[in-house]
Amino acid sequence: MSSRRSRSRQSSGSRITDDQIIDLVSKLQQLIPELRGRRSDKVSASKVLQETCNYIRNLHREVDGLSDWLSRLLASADTDSDQAAIIRNLLME
Amino acid sequence: MASTIMNPVTNTDSDRRRMRRKKKSMIKENQINPSHAVWKSETRQQIYSSKLVQALSQLSLDSPPPSSSAPRGGRAVREAADKALAVAAKGRTRWSRAILTSRLKLKFRKRKRQRGPAAAVAAVTGSIRSKKPRFSVLKLKARSLPTVQRKVKVLGRLVPGCRKEPLPIILEEATDYIAALEMQVRAMSALAELLSGSGSASSSSAPPPPSQ
């Protein structure tokens, strides 16, 4: 049974079809807001990859900015621990 | 004689049950596969928010001096947020496992130079590399273009844990990672708004007057 499983994993790895790749690329395209409305045959794979990289970099930058903001808020709110308790209660509900 | 007739029947029955279990798990996997839908669910965001709050409250307890740790604190918050995101991913994706194990690897490197996990990874990637020439023949024309290859590598570097993975895996991981990042942004901005809103409210207003 375990040999069957490992064989199926290996075969699925080497039998990756072009259709599967096209499918993955189109799924990725749907996620990226810039390319969402366009038809998949008008957008090349390289463009999808480029926009994906840009989008991920933007999201990283946003997360960095938000974590900076949060760290400043936490630092200022440390003196007031009631706030943290209120937030925890709000989120637990 | 009766027993020999019965036995093959029971064998196929248990086999069918095993196949059904496999099919059920596969169907569940396929339902979970629209991963962006999963990351958009309210419950997933709530789980992440509560984990994030826990991590952040631990952070604020660990690093008391607020003035010096403002730039460092941002980095710590980012790492805590990424870790919470990886935990919320339930370890089904490579990037989440990579985020979680990267912390452990740092800890190991501080104590000893343990090459256990690295050796295992090298063995796996070695076996994958031996298969690469086999399906490079079947590659799309677009896949073999150097520009596409370059972009795939860049993408692989951006998504944690996908530096040495082949194209379809990078695409899959990127799909899930983007959805997870979007959820992270939503949750963190909601939390920040909540904190800033409650902060300004508590600092500016005293308890409301009883009669107006």
From TrEMBL, chain A:
CDD domains according to UniProt: bHLH_AtPRE_like
Chief site of localization: nucleus
SUPFAM superfamilies, sorted: HLH, helix-loop-helix DNA-binding domain
Domain BHLH: 5-59
Spans traversing the lipid bilayer: none
Highest taxon above the source species: Eukaryota
Compartment(s) of residence: Nucleus
One of the record's GO molecular function terms: protein dimerization activity
GO annotation, cellular component aspect: nucleus
The protein, known as: Paclobutrazol Resistance 5
Organism this protein belongs to: Hibiscus trionum (Flower of an hour)
Automatic annotation (TrEMBL), chain B:
Main localization of the protein described in the UniProt heading: nucleus
Family annotation (SUPFAM superfamilies): HLH, helix-loop-helix DNA-binding domain
Protein keywords: Nucleus, Transcription, Transcription regulation
Chain ranges of the IBH1-like N-terminal domain: 44-104
Entry keyword annotation includes Metal-binding: no
Regions of compositional bias (Polar residues) in chain numbering: 1-12
UniProt xrefs under InterPro entries: bHLH_AtIBH1-like, HLH_DNA-bd_sf, IBH1-like, IBH1_N
GO cellular component: nucleus
Short name of one Pfam family: IBH1_N
Subcellular location(s) of the protein: Nucleus
Recorded superkingdom: Eukaryota
GO MF entries: protein dimerization activity; transcription cis-regulatory region binding
One GO process term, biological-process aspect: regulation of DNA-templated transcription
Region (Disordered): 1-38
The protein's name in its UniProt record: IBH1-like N-terminal domain-containing protein
Organism of derivation: Hibiscus trionum (Flower of an hour)
